[in-house]
Amino acid sequence: MALTAEQIHAAVAVRFGDAVSALAPPAKDPFFTVKAEAIVEVCRFVKSEPSLAFDFLEDLTAVDAPKENQIRVVYHLWSYQHRHGIVLKVEAERARPIVPSVEAIWKTADWMEREVYDLFGVAFTGHPDLRRIMMPDDWIGHPLRKDYQEAGGYEKISNVRDSSLLEYRRMDEAVRQAAETKAAATPAPTTAAPAAPPSPTSPLPSTGTAH
Amino acid sequence: MQPLADQLIRSWIHADPGAWPYTQAVYLLFMLIAGALLTTFTAVFSGIVSWYERRLAGRMQSRIGPNRVGPAGFLVWVADALKLISKEDTIPGDSDHALFRAGPYFVVTGLVLTFVALPFGDRLIAADMNLGLFYILSVTALVVVGLIMSAWSSNSKWSLVGGIRSAAQVVSYEIPAGLAIMVPVLLAGSLSTQGIIRAQGGPAGGSFFLAGGWPWNWFVFDDPMAFVSFFVFLTAALAEGNRTPFDLPEAESELVSGYNTEYSGMRFSFFFLTEWANLWVMSALATLLFLGGWQIPGVAPEVIGHSAALVFVSFLVFVVKTVALVNVVIWLRWTLPRIRVDQMMVLCWKYLVPIEMAAVLLTALWMLGFAHLVPAAQSAIHGVFFLAAGAVPLVLFLRQTFANLRLTSDRVDLTNW
Amino acid sequence: MEELVIQKIGPVSDEEMVLNMGPQHPSTHGVIRFVVKADGEIMKVAVPVVGYLHRAIEKIGEIVTYPQFMPYTDRADYLAAMFANEGWALAVEKLLGLEVPPRAQYLRAISCELNRIASHLISVGTMGQDIGALTPFVHALREREKINDLIEELCGARLTYNYHRIGGVAFDAPEGWIDEARRFVDRFEKVLDEYDRLLTWNEIYVKRLAGIGIIPAEMAVDYGLVGPNLRGSGVDWDLRRDAPYGAYRDFRFDVPLGKGWVGKKGDCFDRYYVRMLEMRESCKILRQAFEKIPAGDFLAPKVPKRIKPPAGEAWSRIESARGEMGYYVVADGATEKAWRVRIRTGSFTAMGIVEPLSRGMMIADLVALIASLDVVAPEIDR
Asked: Are residues C250 and C239 in contact, defined by beta-carbon separation less than 8 angstroms?
């Protein structure tokens, strides 16, 4: 029998009390927050409790919230048996995000937690195989964080690419400067520093300077 | 070779080669010519088949296939050959260079040598050895040696797995193939390829419908064991030739390309030359063993040798039968999936080998029991069996074909060549 | 970066060898890599290594505006781009509380079902090809080509459709298009019979797939398998029927389940055949949709010019060709860009099950298993 989000929340809150926050005002999808240290127990409960029976971890992901200095790990649960769903959230400190792993409860969490670890840097304690999944093992940084800055390259391969028009303009500039240098016989400033990738809305330079 | 050379010399220049002082040199010259002809035939045939198979595959897959070079794309094999010859012959740095270079030559040599004992018609054979079949079985072993050499020396794991698969497969399937060959050998009482073909023709003097190579004179319809042996032989030959459904050694989706992964240019083309020329070898062997070889229907085998026209007709008959079988092999390749390596072994050792052992034994008993004790019963059984084994499957096949055509509301279209 | 994978496969004895299957391998269906520890033909373990096609689509979703992200969703699953489109549209509509006109819903369902057939055709065809039968693949492509033609008439694109819009679809069906599509469906059902005769009940094909890669129902749920993979294991769940969205409420169709036709329930053949049957069901849905499609707008008239949903988060899920595809969108309420976009895909979770299943398989079976799971590399990595 399908339960509403309120009923699910009530069942969990009765059992875990303080570890579970109130049900969020359901803007769209109702969710409630669980304390990090209780998440494994809560998950085990909601999976094994026959009236809840959340056997399917639909999704496990994270949302970066720099303003609150939090990374929120989001669990979308679904029950094939009762055909109801709920969203759980765990808040972790942004500087050292540590969340217990639910891999032992749903095997599918193995890869999903690896992905969150890779892209957000959340360390899942108790995960048997926590290594990067999308990025190379020696990648620096966690790309889906809001303050992530590209390192400019990986293994000497640049991952920054400008618009070719910008590139042409820089080349023209270099040629012009070289000519000026020759004329004035003074050292020219280098133009090697890579520029930030242009945002799609940035105005393109006029084509007049292109070759 | 020698009788043919003698006959040619006698008929062309009306001289007796036996009276010449350096006859052996003349024979040597003939052998060189024959060798050059056969090698050229191998290369050209495999080239043409490479085009033909691609066109045929195109038709089966509702696409066109190569159609740019020459009429209907016929010259694509020349273009391919030119491209492959002019490509760089890369040799991996960590490979065993000597073996890596030598491997393809073993493969090609092993294949071309079989043509020595393969007939093309009455009198048209390089060497009519009395151990012809035994010779063919032996020299094909060289192909395996070449495959393992090139696979191992490539120093690539995919190649190695492919080579080992190939070795296991070819060595295993030589047993059912060899046993299947024993059935026509028993029936003909000869290991010579020409001898076996001659045994499949009715003698002169009888009715027109009994003389020569009518289907009911072929070994495949001689008795049930031979009928089974024909299919066992075809299966085993497919496996030995690494053709689908036994193309495990070069299984593209599993082993990238198997033993030839690291090869390029000319050496790579040798493998494919072998594969396609092997189509001829396996089909020609099946033709000569079971399908009456070059026997012309209605013409007794003794008569053919006296007339050049009849020899040419016998050549045509042989080529038509062989190409028909080549068609079947190509058709199988583009229809069937590939079996797994353990299933391949199970098929060989648990089914084909016991079946063939029983078939050889029963053939011997059959010959003893019927041929000598009750000849009348033999011809009666033979007639019934011919109908059952030949006509009924043919009718069923045609029915299925037309049913399939009806179901998909397709039509036969032969215009797109 | 190699060390961690090598650690994962454990010590390698003299008898065993480590095979690197991919990233460039004929049967990995894109850029996926498997590090295989094999003893001869038998695998000890195959560890999937993904990420070669990671294009940070989720990050892009935070940079571009809501409508601008639509073409990027195409790239999340280029074999079934309609579903990715629809999932995104549904998620943003949920955030906005936008009603989609009925005709647009029908056009969405029709385009999605056509796309499902196209995607399943690729899956079924490549499955045959990986098993070694080269012809069914080309026959499957032939039919897919017709669907591509139809969809091209509908939206101008053949692969990355960018057809759905927030609040509807981009274009109405051209005149006569519905009849053309109906003719295609009529013909296609006969072609399915042909595939059955050519491939499905081929003895060798059945032998290669029966009893291989068995996924019991509990394991399938535990590993988060979705779609045909889940139904191949016998779990009776289809979002189109059980949590219907859009026009799917109006259609009646069956949900094919794996029955262990030739081997055990949940083996490779079941997953394959569930897809074959699903194509027939899609034909049923298409017929009903052609019958019932209402007249009216194809795009909601009240879609705002600048889409700026109120703060909140939405989770939309649709039944894609590869199973449940979920979009998790967090809107901050202040900008026209999403704060966070998450795409949950079927291939990603399907890859997670390869490692436990691969133990003790043969190398040739791994190829069959990957094909039967119908993983598409861009959908894994996004």
From this structure: no
Task: Decide: helix, strand or coil at residue B27.
Answer: helix
Q: How far is B101 from chain C (nearest CA, A)?
A: 25
With beta carbons less than 8 A apart as the criterion, state whether C66 and C152 touch. Answer: no
CB-based contact A87 C315, cutoff 8 Å: yes
The pLDDT assigned to B301 comes to: 73
Quick one: pLDDT band at residue A177, thresholds 50, 70, 90? Answer: very high
pLDDT exceeds 80 at position A25: no
What percent of chain C has a predicted confidence (pLDDT) above 70?
98
Give C124 to chain A, closest Cα distance, Å: 25
Distance CA A50, CA B21 (A): 105
pTM of the predicted structure, to 2 decimals: 0.83
Strand C33-39 with C17-21, pairing? antiparallel
Q: Which amino acid is at B14?
A: H
Q: B151 contacts in C (CB within 8 Å)?
A: none
Q: Is A156 a domain residue?
A: no
Q: Do the Cβ atoms of C343 and C84 come closer than 8 Å?
A: yes
Cβ-Cβ contacts under 8 Å, C128 against chain B? 337
Question: Residue A17's domain is classified under what CATH number?
Answer: 3.30.460.80
Domains in chain A, number:
1
The pLDDT of B350-375, averaged and rounded, is: 83
From the list C139, C202, C364, the residue facing B254 with the nearest CB is C364
Contact across the interface for C197 and B404, Cβ inside 8 Å = yes
Burial pattern B144-168, b for ≥16 Cβ within 10 A else e, equals bbbbbbbbbbbebbbbbbbbbbbbb
If you measure CA to CA, which chain B residue comes closest to C188?
B408
Domain with CATH 1.10.645.10 in chain C: 57-381
Residue A45 lies in a domain: yes
* CATH code for residues C57-381: 1.10.645.10
- The pair of three-digit structure tokens given for residue B153, joined into one six-digit string: 């020396």
A189 or C304: which leads in pLDDT: C304
The mean predicted confidence, pLDDT, of chain B is 83
